[in-house]
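Exercise 7. Predict the joint structure of the components listed below.
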Amino acid sequence: MMGGSPVPPRSRRHTIAGNAAEPGRTVLSRAFAVLDSFLDAPVDKTHGEITRASGLAPATVHRLLAELTGWGALERTARGRYRVGLRLWQLGSQAPGGRGLRDLALPFLQDLLQVSNEVVHLVVRDQDRALYLEKLEAHPDVVVTSRVGLRLPMHASGPGKVLLAHAPRGVVEPVLAAGLERRASGTITDPARLREALAEIRRQGFALSRDEMTEGASSVAAPVRGPAGRVVAAISVVVPSRTPNLLPLVPAVRMAAMGVSRALQP
Amino acid sequence: MMGGSPVPPRSRRHTIAGNAAEPGRTVLSRAFAVLDSFLDAPVDKTHGEITRASGLAPATVHRLLAELTGWGALERTARGRYRVGLRLWQLGSQAPGGRGLRDLALPFLQDLLQVSNEVVHLVVRDQDRALYLEKLEAHPDVVVTSRVGLRLPMHASGPGKVLLAHAPRGVVEPVLAAGLERRASGTITDPARLREALAEIRRQGFALSRDEMTEGASSVAAPVRGPAGRVVAAISVVVPSRTPNLLPLVPAVRMAAMGVSRALQP
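Solution:
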């Protein structure tokens, strides 16, 4: 569903010829650069911050912000900052990739939330990152950094490792070669050890993580498979790391993932 | 939250001066016109359908589609049609308006789903329409046309009437003057009767509907109030119209709406 038509990498985006003032960038590509500045750091931003993040001239950003705000892609806050607007939310909610999978998965995620009573995630691969499609929380004992729409590194979480374990070589090798950033005390930073972990995840059909993304948070994750058996998403439960044994959670997480996989069959 | 910074009406959007080929339209405004064609009819579209909906020249649409697809705003399907892409979903999920309210409301919506076991909606006003922010379903006996991201007329549903009952005069009068389209056998099409219904909703603190939007579907809706007491959203439960008495559902719907209102307090 998702892995099949991946979003183009950011580096390929701004290649269409533009005008002389900012060579190599069309008006649209400049507007995309403004919007990109909101992608992975979703806070209110000033004109100056957007200018720095986009690499555009201040006057260009000024003009683009006026048009993007006029249409509703962005909103101006009371403090004169900019944030993503309701029009983009509405348009984005029509994306069959994000929405369709999420809608099919929701009942299973809710069941999983009910038996685990913590945090439940639905995650897909977006190029070399794990994109969080849904997050449900009950009364969690654990605080995690995930948020719907956020993209996080794949090597440092249960669902990320599930997605990486089933990603094509062309995705896995660059991730391993780029260096595995430490996010918490349990992050696997050694490529050889990560390779072994991914092989074991493929063999076992699930992934465990302990203090990999966030200190104090552990997770159990399992793959969701699309019609051709290809892994299209991962489902996970996050629990406090003081949970002595994660294995009792495995059957419920796998059941939820298998339920969604079945719902994806045509 | 939402009503305070409404999205500009569609008619105000394309006013910035552009080039000679399509006077009065900038490149960006033309890209917005392409994206607008996906707003309220979220299906895969052909190049020809987008051209007709946007009123642009076919060659212009061709160029815009290439750029929008390159960035990931749109995706090309296997059948050569276009649909909203994952990049827009991700960006839209950062909108604090849609997302913040939905995240705060979700636990209360889930509780309401559990006690009602049907369909639960979270709806906000977007100008003169009801915009569906969230829809949760259990094992519903009733089929409704709502979908997350969809905008429907306000006069023909429980949550729509709640939002209209608390909308400013500048919104209500044009809605009444524009004519109240019949959507099902119970739709209120007489402006005088709708005025009375809205006054009663303000007095009672909830709205009932029977066969107003969809034949066979009835609903109970209550207002969610923001920090200043202003109505910012409506929560509703939809049940089959064969349900003889809707009143027993009122307390649960009002409790959910009050819970969200409380969560919105600073």
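Discussion. Residues 10-92 of chain A form a domain with the Arc Repressor Mutant, subunit A fold (CATH 1.10.10.10).
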